[in-house]
Amino acid sequence: MAITGECFCGEVKYRIDGKLHDARSCHCSRCRKAFSSQASAYAVVEAKDFHWVSGENLLTSYVGDHGFGLQFCNKCGSTLSGVYKGVVHGITLGCVNGDPDIKLGRHIYVGSKASWEVIAEGVPQYDKAPPEKA
Ligand SMILES: [Zn+2]
Ligand SMILES: [Zn+2]
Known about the structure:
The chain is mainly beta. It contains one helix and ten strands, in the order βββαβββββββ.
């Protein structure tokens, strides 16, 4: 079954007719800015498998160093995909709908993670919100 994804406002949608590869989370300072988060959550996709379904006209690309860029919805700001030299290279896992049948396989650049980030080990995890403190 195809993997689908969309931005926060739902105008930009894509479909992937294949598998995701090399799901990773990068904790470097550049990814923190690019993903507005503690780290990236990103997986590689084969360009031939990737198709925009709607809203491609709303995409804006920001190309950084080395020709690698990110594409985001200029209506809601969600970052959807990574592009290398104009070709889709991968997707942000946060915009995937449902279960894409892959788990993060590696945390990279942990040595330059944000001072405030605590990576899960030993930290309580909750399926929903934590219980209210009495
Ligand atoms: Zn959007
Ligand atoms: Zn990074």
